[in-house]
């Protein structure tokens, strides 16, 4: 069974709230390794769009609440991609009301008829299973400040997710940029997996 790496990234806010994607992330994300990109909105500059296209031409974007450029007016609020038997939906999340609400997320996942729902807007990583469906927030790849619905004042940890789809199993590799007490940065990786039909670890 062949696998295909899918980059899940969003809430970049370049150059409004962040100068660029962290250099340590860019070093990890190189052309030829990624098969597809799912961008969860708030991709607010052309240079970053071009960079993502250089990583993988199979780029899918949904509209975020701050995507105001005229070229973003035609973007859908949500999309679904299929990998074998898995249906994966993604949305920025500003249309999930109230934000992060479990019942509202389940309704959205059922309406989209997806096994996995990727959601933006929170600016922090989170992943959990609910009623056989898997929900994942990749966070903000830049650690953009100040607009996550989960609360002001808490500094977001920059993060993105790589999905490795293998049949009816998807493994999520969560990359987070941490700083130690001296300010030195390092990239940590967590692994979470989900099997269609409802089992995660």
UniProtKB/TrEMBL annotation:
This is Vacuolar protein sorting-associated protein 29. SUPFAM superfamilies: Metallo-dependent phosphatases (SSF56300). Pfam families: Metallophos_2 (PF12850). Belongs to the VPS29 family. It comes from Tothia fuscella. GO terms for cellular component: cytosol; retromer complex. Transmembrane segments: none annotated. One of its GO terms (biological process) is retrograde transport, endosome to Golgi. Keywords: Protein transport, Transport. It comes from the Eukaryota.
